[in-house]
Amino acid sequence: MSSIGSSKKVGVVGAGSFGTALAQITSKNVEEVLLYSRKEKIAENILKTRYNSEYYPNTKLKKNIIPTSNLEDMKKCSTIFICVPSFAFRKTLQDIKQLNIDNLLIVTTAKGIEYPSLKTMGKIVEEYFDDNYVAISGPNFASQIMLDLATVCNVASKNSENSEKIKKMLQTEKFKVKIIDDVVGLEFCGVIKNINAIAYGICEGININENAKYAVLAKGFKETKKIIEGIGGDRSTVNQYCGFGDLVLTSTSKESRNHTLGMLYGQKIIVDEESSSIVFEGKNSIMAVKDICDKHSINSTIVDFVYNVIVNQKTPKLSFKELWDNF
Question: Could you give the 3-state DSSP secondary structure of residue 85?
């Protein structure tokens, strides 16, 4: 895989909320963006109306965003952003691998971890391509990126030239891109912040006072550093936008799905696990992080708190008391 390829045609696989927003941003810096949707109806609708009405019915897409439901069209691209949920990531990579694209640079945007393999999305990329992929993470709600509101993210790669290439593709006056060199830390921050968001949501669900809620948030931030360092990342990465910024945004915002998931469990509201991808992703994250902590002999009271409520289904208030006793 070459470090830098042509940026004339860029592919975005996944025409959901984040993929569409990323295509809109990238279209300002490259000649053409191919936006792939596995749903033919979405691609046809964009082609006819220039709107992705399923996600952004009020925002017109740039003219140089070309929708497609044929993955073969990605053969025209030397850079592909993968914007699918973590549970669909491996299958998507397998499909892209079969296209046999030369000198392909993969960019992963998914914040998740495969269970039970405990592999980040980047580690899965390495199985099919190599380790020069680029990872993106930050306090980034897709809807605000789509509206071209002020946003910042971090990118990381083992190849600094690839990071620079992706920065040039993404950065605009409103969308800032900061390069770091800790791929491990960046990817795991994106996973562990989900645990902190669930923890904060549980506290809201059981109506814990604000003093205690923010103490839980601070403890989660501190323990995130311990986990990142324990698995071979740089603890200072947790101070970055992909760390502190994303942790606070995901934990405290009502738009955060993991925050909502925590609130539901805190209120003992029964969630249909079969039909809810939120529960699926949330449970996977906490089981994976718990396994990683156990594997590396890392003690995290926040991880234990969330694991007890979500997986062991212990009473939220009792679990909080056990957490508070460890402050």
Answer: coil
Percent of the chain, pLDDT > 90? Answer: 91
Alpha carbons 157 and 180: distance in angstroms, whole number: 8
Instruction: State whether the Cα torsion 293-114-42-165 is positive or negative.
Output: positive
Q: Alpha-carbon distance 61 to 218, whole Å?
A: 40
- Is 111 annotated as catalytic? no
The mean per-residue pLDDT over the stretch 274-284 comes to: 67
Measured between alpha carbons, how far is 91 from 28 in angstroms, rounded to an integer? Answer: 30
Grouping H, G, I as helix, E, B as strand and the rest as coil, residue 281 is helix
Alpha helices in 27-135 (DSSP H): 40-49, 89-97, 121-128
DSSP assigned state of 61: P
Count CB neighbours of 54 within 10 A.
16
Is 193's pLDDT higher than 70?
yes
Confidence (pTM): 0.93
Q: Specify the pairing of strand 79-82 against strand 105-108.
A: parallel
What is the structure's pLDDT at 277? 61
119, 165, 193, 213: the active-site residue: 193
pLDDT at 215 over 80: yes
**Residue 297: what are its φ and ψ, rounded to 5°?**
55, 45
Indicate the residue type of 237: T
Residue with tokens 């039909």: 275
